[in-house]
Sequence to fold (663 residues):
Amino acid sequence: MDILAQAAGLVFQPYVLLVIFASACFGLFVGAIPGLTATMATALLVPITFFMDPVPAIAAIVTATAMAIFAGDIPGALLRMPGTPASAAYVEDAYLMTQDGRGDEALGAVLVFSAIGGIFGTIVLVTTAPALAEIALKFSSFEYFWLVLLGLSCAIFVSPSSVTRGMIALLIGLFAATIGIDNPAGQPRYTFGNVELLAGVQFIPAMIGLFAVSEVLRSIVYSKERPKIDRSGKHTVFKRQWTNIRRYPIQMLRGSATGTAIGALPGAGADIAAWISYAVSKQFSRQKEKFGRGHVEGLVEAGASNNGAVSGAWIPALVFGIPGDSITAIVIGVLYVKGMNPGPTVFINDPQLIYAVFMVFFLANIIMLPLGWVAIKGASTLLSIPNRVLMPVILLFCIVGSFAINNSVFGVLLMLIFGVLGFIMEENDIPIAPAILGLVLGPMLEQNFITSMIKADGSFLAFFERPIAAGLGIFTIVVWSIPIILYLRRRWAGSEASPKEDLPQG
Amino acid sequence: MKFNDFVLGVLVLIGAAAILVSARNFSPIPGQAYGAETMPNAIGIVAAGLGIFMMAKSALMGFQGRAVALADWAKSPMAVVGVAMALALIGVYIVFSERVGFVPIAFLILLVFMLTLRTRIIVAVPVAIFATILVQQTFGRLLLVPLPRNDFLSFLW
Fold:
């Protein structure tokens, strides 16, 4: 109890609370702008944290990260421009809810279940971090290969369009991921002598192009009426969430647990977590047909999973000093600078500091609720601005966001190319989201496959020789088999097409 | 421009062939059976299978829909001009931003795009000025993004 009291003493100081509040506002601002990421918010905070004590320094980064990841959902729901690849999993549902006049409910669901997922992940972090980290470290390239393949498969099967079109999108993303020199053999591929392409296709300009620029173009050609947000003054953001909690408790817990577990795997992270959770939610839902058409259930599970993964990523970071993602990699650096060397010894040498960090996690997820509410209310005014004024301003943000990734106009060129590609894809009912996931996970898939094959001396059986790998492999094959079996069953029953092909386009 | 399933299948198959042919230029890691060609080959093989499946399925279902159809919006000159202008303005930024500087080019992009979308000039000009300064101050000063400068407006930095 002494340690807890000391930790509370470190956190509940006006200075630390002010830092948490300021970094929350900063995180919300950065996350809500398409192109600016939670990683960028973290990197920008690093020089400022040099002048802070360890607890406020970590508090600033933890709070800004949690806020930025939630804020990425705001442009996703309002404008169909997700801030992160993880948000892309459920952007269609969130946006369609907004178009249906339920934008407050969609954003409220993402906000509340993000906070719940984040708090769940933190509880796991506090109680079982060392045990979970031990399991996470048993994952080798074989397990990661299946996990990535599972994530990619989910992207196809949850797509509101047909499976074949989902696969086209995924192959486009995977092909784009092969560009550059960053492959196991270190050979330049499809660079055409361009030095900038050696570094590959960065996913942020590609994502801005595929989602935001194509949406700007679509708004021009279809002159869509902007969706309305409830402006009656009632607190509709939180109003329906209690109902959602009571209606979807299993989805909420399953999403939080899946997100935390996947987040704890170094290198996996929120993207795979959100997609797998969305697919699981759809698979076990009694209202499968509503997914991708403005249904809140997927938002509940994938939203919780998304932020659960953010908390989960801290498990290997704090217990072993192994970064789970780019954000924790930066934070580990900050921890070293502050003399809090992450690893098992930090729990013995500085327990009050580590418990103070845990308290900051809880505070960051709790403060997300009121500040998120303010951000949602503020951002909703976007919908009252006519397209002819809003879209040019969004285009400028897209240009600058793409430029800011490498401070080069090459990012803007990538954005332009992917914008045109995204527009053509959407015109042909090819979903965009699987392409983004292919681009993000393609290098992981290749790296883990080649590494595994080299380790196994070319034997495919090695992918089933380890217990966790075998379990994941069999599960992935089952996931692939279900649509084929359903298709064949329908054919035999005299139906004309597969169940997925029968669905109207989303 | 919309393609039916058969044409999409053909396009996917052509893409697969291009990937498989180009993958022959890549070689495995020395001493190994796998390397830089593995992923493009895998993508090419899956894409080829997908293309053939789409073509066969479309043929079995009687080639539903027109092979290539122009979208309805393509008949509206305003929509075509709007799309062309949006793409051209991004191109203008790519080519001229380093030479002219961020502030004038951003103002120009906003103004021209808004006027193309038939925003009244009395609204377009103040919005373009405000948004340009907002973006420049936010990204250029607060987030320290090295946006291209020009001497004339250097006081903004």
Summary: Confidence is low (pLDDT under 50) at residues 497-506 of chain A.
